[in-house]
Amino acid sequence: MAVWFGVCAHIYQKNERIHELFELEENLLQHISDLRVQRLLEMQVHAVPHKSCVFLQRTMNITADLIHFITSPLSQVHRNPKWNETFIQNATCDVTTGHEHSSVKMEAGSALLWLLAVFLQDIHCQGVYAPPSVRIIHSGHACNVEEERYTERVYTIREGEMLELTCLVSGHPRPQIRWTKTAGSASDRFHESSVFNETLRITHIQRHHGGRYYCKAENGFGAPAIKSIRVDVYYLDDPVVTVHQSVGEAKEQFYYERTVFLRCAANSNPPVRYSWRRGHDFLSQGSDKGVEIYEPFFTQGETKILKLKNLRPQDYANYTCTASVRSVCGIPDKSALFQLTNTTASPSIKLLAEDSIVANPGQTLTLVCVSTGGEPTPVLTWIRHGENLPLNSLLKGGTLTIPSVSTEDSGVYSCIASNNVGNPGKKSTNIIVRGLKKGRFWITPDPYHNDDNIQIGREVKISCQVEAMPAEELIFSWLKNGRGLRSSERMVITQTEADGAPGTTNLDIIDLKFTDFGTYTCVASLKNGGIPEISIDVNISSTTVPPSLTVPRGKSPLVVKESETVELQCLVSGKPKPIILWSHADREAPMPDGSMQMESYDGILRIVNVSREMSGTYRCQTSQYNGFNVKPREALIELIVQYPPAVEPTYTELRQGLGRAFTITCRVLRAHPSRVLKYEWKLGSRLLTMGQLDTRDDTEYQVRALNREGYGAYTCDITNEAGSGRCTFLVTGKAFAPEFYYDTYSALWQNKPRVYGFKLQWTQMNPNAVDRIMAYRLGIKQTGQQRWWEQEIPMEGTIQKGELITYNLTELVKPEAYQVRLTPITRFGEGDSTERIIYYSAPVNPHWSKFHCGFDEEAVCMFTQDKTEEFDWTRHSAATRDTKYTPNTGPSSDHSGSKQGYYMYIETSRPRQEGDKARLLTPLFSVAPKKPYGSVSNNPTYCFSLYYHMYGKHIGSLNVYLRQKSQTGEDSPVWTLTGNQGDHWKQARVNIHPTSSFQMILEGVRGSGIEGDIAIDDVVIEEGECRDPPPNSNLRSLAPSAVQHIWKWCVPLFLVLVGQWR
Q: MAM domain: from which residue to which, for each copy (predicted)?
């Protein structure tokens, strides 16, 4: 074993190419789950992400050299050099396909060679294509942001504030974003809304907007990415104080008690806290023996009740209930005042109207309600049971006016009086608007004989029915041939009185004679008049016969084409002719008007714009109304709706290059009739081929070699008796639109004061679908302007799928935004264009590998002051220092010893007080892109360093914080130092590991006196870990450091070779 590790050390020192292999160690090791020497080794190999071709080639060359270098001296076995060539050739990079999985097994004797070969073989590159990732950030001031179970964040905001959530996405192509929301605890119903935008903005958020908000990003590559944040809306409504009294009657002369309960309740989120005052004195449980404060058992947190036991004179006072949510989100406390006196009483009211009001249509009604008692004075209002008040009604206090009433205004109206003492007072009245409607009749033959006809000498009954309001005012009268009839032995007149049911009157002719033939008239009216009466005529004669129902010849089955108008007809004979009822006979389904049955007085059912779903069997049957009250007659009619073929695809676009072959297919989904179907293929107006579909449901057309004349719209018309369906295939040589790459690292740079540059990157969607792209036409203009500037970008060679193309835009005027348009060009012509907006933002240091600021420029490297703190950092140099400066504190030069050099410092003289803070913020830095085959921890490491001067007996603290763009809540502390450090400059270094765009915050805290000036100089942020951090016993680093484990490779290599020796 010692020999083996010595060899590893020797290799590491002598062969520089092995260093590159160790850089790959952690990524390769994470693909090895178990390495068994004695048994077969099994491993699942997953396709490697983008940017892997050059990387893999380099890996295989290094690995081959390593294998030959290690194994030859130890095992004395000379390997065939051709192994390496074959090994490398087997690792192909196919940029046109996606992921592929493979499982392989191999003997442990060649485990190392197999391990690397199987890991690298058949790997398919995807370029920069990547599935979406997403995170949610918020702008604006949140009351609080908490992490809940590591998966969901809770964002708290005050009602009425503006909510702005931004969904930051990465992935290529640019993911499409969708916001959805489901109801939360503050809402009593499910709600969903969709916003297809990166930013979700609600200007004045309300309580029902609370809930979970989901951001879903998808780009068709991999699984969609979904993140959520819960928004909790805080609010506090005005509290309401209600009073209830209980008076105990004298029981056996022992006591007499009057107890008052004051109940305080307010709607709020979070739960409210209540407090009571009597006059100016706060009340609490136990502070007064006559007072008890408690919460009802089933309403914890919803209310607090103040109980005044056996009222005393001092209990008659002003009571104030204060509702508080502890000033969360800046919500102030709210109060409600109630004056309790010896006259406090619940409301009582009186209606200046009858309990039931009957009115004629068009009449104006006025309902008046007055208060007869109650202290405080009750508030009066009117409601209508089960419905809203009429639209034209006027409500003013206790007076409700309804002008021009109609039957729809009938109902129960109630006056409500409330003064928050006891139960509300309530009085109701019923408004009835007179009306008559739905007059009908029917004839019933003698029920004692099985005969549906009217015959001389037998009984016949004529029934008349009317709906009336009010029902008790309905009266009927009968006429024969215009003359009044009275009930007699042969003609018996009766009337049914059923509550809520239509009123019905019957005329029974006991022994029908020839002289009884004639016209009988039923007259319905209301006792007090005011509305027109209803008359119904019924003719009784020798021609009065029961109905019969038939379907005319040729009317069933009825064939009609879709979208036409059809009439279904049933012929009804008999006298009188009854109403015909139409319904579906073959299924339970609504009729065209939405009801289950439709009425027809002429026996015709007319259907406009008939659809295929209306096909089926319809039933027509007689109704008992306006005819004989006998068993219904019925007939069936079959309706057949023909419709043209439904085909797919109705429209599709095909991108093809010249000389290629392709096949297009048109498929029939459904049609009636479905045979025989004819088809025609055309290119434009030119007929290509035609035929008919006997057994198949699709037809295809093949192009063997596409030429220029072959571009255009191919159509396939499939026809039956009802019409035709069309498939359209647009064959074009246009290239697909480019896909802008939005995840470019440090895309914006600035090397001149007034202009900036932008690294524009894109990929080409499906580049192999059409001919080779020869150039791109780039158009650019300032947003808001009309003029485009265009130029061509020539392309050499063939563009591969996922290949990232870069073009630098220069001389962009800051801070203007630009609209960029990119159009691919092939020999067919211009393809589809795509556009994006480029926005200017304050750039990161142009040489981001090392950001350095010595504060010598007046712009101080784009550092900014935090205006929310008590005071600011000041830029100074020893040469410009005030002669009245505080002695025994502060530096006498900058960190380099120059009197002319500048630095930043905090002045702790008056009016500064102990604990006052000054905060200095660095520019916003972008995080370097993740290495495709980096370490297990993909978060990059940066070294932050600065020089500090902390001299004086009153020195406070110097703190450094990390603020990340995706981070919610407080900033992360990374370094802090407190107290006097002597009259000289010292350096501090600390490693930071940001996961997103970040900035550093330098905070100076004033100490206990004026001799506490703190200065900083030469702030540096550079990629990589800090080297040789200076020792300092007072320095406390709060950031973790990374550790390299180079020797992890030696153990698996040793195990493999041991297996090979065996």
A: 851-1028
